[in-house]
Design a protein that fits this description.
The protein is of the alpha/beta class and about 350 residues long. The chain has 13 helices and 13 strands. The protein has a seven-stranded mixed sheet with strand order 2-1-3-4-5-12-11, with helices on both faces. It has a six-stranded mixed sheet with strand order 7-6-8-9-10-13, with helices on both faces. Helix 3 crosses helix 11, helix 4 packs parallel to helix 5 and helix 8 runs parallel beside helix 9. The longest helix has 26 residues. About 40% of the residues are buried.
Length: about 350
């Protein structure tokens, strides 16, 4: 009898507990259901997710790079997902976005860094979480990334310098409107450019580093030094966006075309100026090849595969890291058709739209 009464009490207690649990489920069933669905989805979700953090779309080429990267990624793996983060030129925002991508447990991380020296800790955090990292176009210092993929940036500077020398520098004086010191590529481009100036006994009158690649700051510099530009032959611009602002400011002082300009990135406006004669040259970097190669390497790293055709290394200050690079191309009015236009980078009618037949 005693054992029977105990069973009855136990059954009653179980019934109460079950009833209470059902009430809880009814009260917050939506949330519990969501959690359950997400858990199942996570278990079944085996596709590759690529995290991509870029500097800013204020620079024209980054939109093109990411579009090509995304298209190639889908071509190679239709199930792969791209989580794209735009830092709008703010280094603290980029750090937060990279941490977000780490928390999302992406399979590989691709970064166009804003500041080559400020991402070391967060990149180290990514790698400690088992996430391989690609430094895209710009080197990340002291971070031991799994791959640095870019163009030969020292050669970019050499091509700029050679174009100006060929165009003629009678007073042997130039000014440099470079990008920010935080961008490691800037020092490489400057190294190449300065080597050509030294070889040809050309004086570099001044060097201005444009903060955050803000072209308006370069325009302000030109405006404030307009009187000093009287005997300056040329201005080397860190990119075509800076060249655009510099030329507009020179136009206001009726100096456009008199002072020779070079830039890089083959922006549409720059290519138009090259064929019109107000810009000597631009450096074309076939970003479609770079972005496609980066997509291939990103998938390989995500799968733990070896990187094919990567035979060079570069020091990031602390480590020798795998380095894959492409050669840049000097574009002038003489070879515009067989370079930029033949590759499909810009349409012929767009480049020549201001040229009368």
């Amino acid at each position: 009898m005693k054992e029977k009464r105990l069973n009855k009490k136990t059954k009653a207690l179980v019934a109460v507990i079950l009833s209470f649990a059902l009430l809880l489920l009814s009260a917050c069933g939506g949330n519990i259901g969501d959690i359950g669905e997400n858990s199942v989805e996570t278990e079944q979700d085996d596709h590759i997710t690529v995290g991509f953090s870029i500097d800013s779309y204020l620079i024209e080429r980054w939109q093109r790079d990411t579009d090509i990267f995304a298209a190639k990624l889908k071509e190679l793996d239709s199930t792969a997902e791209l989580n794209l983060q735009n830092a709008n030129g703010d280094i603290d925002t980029q750090k937060q976005q990279i941490k977000y991508l780490i928390d999302k447990k992406v399979d590989v991380l691709v970064v166009v860094c804003i500041d080559s020296e400020s991402l070391t800790d967060v990149i180290t955090e990514a790698k400690s979480n088992g996430i391989p990292v690609i430094a895209y176009d710009r080197l990340i210092k002291d971070a031991d990334v799994d791959l640095y993929i870019s163009f030969d940036n020292e050669q970019v500077g050499i091509l700029m310098g050679q174009a100006l020398v060929k165009a003629g520098l009678p007073n042997k004086k130039v000014i440099m409107l470079s990008g920010p010191n935080e961008d490691n590529n800037v020092s490489l481009v400057e190294k190449g450019f300065k080597s050509v100036m030294e070889e040809n006994d050309i004086e570099i009158v001044d060097v201005f580093h444009t903060p955050g690649w803000r072209a308006e700051d370069a325009a302000t510099y030109v405006s404030e030094h307009i009187t000093e530009l009287g005997d300056v032959d040329a201005i080397m611009c860190g990119n075509d966006n800076i060249a655009t602002s510099a030329i507009r400011t020179l136009s206001e002082a009726r100096l456009a075309g008199k002072i020779k300009i070079v830039g890089q990135d083959a922006d549409l406006e720059a290519c138009q100026r090259v064929v019109e004669g107000t810009q000597v040259m631009t450096v074309y970097k076939p970003v479609e090849k770079l972005a496609q190669a980066a997509a291939e390497y990103a998938l390989a790293l995500a799968k733990g595969e070896a990187l094919s055709n990567v035979t060079s290394t570069m020091s990031d200050g602390s480590y020798d890291i795998p380095y894959y690079f492409l050669d840049p191309i000097a574009v002038t009015a003489q070879n515009m058709d067989e370079t930029v236009i033949a590759s499909g980078f810009h349409l012929k009618e767009e480049v020549y739209m201001n040229i009368s037949n």
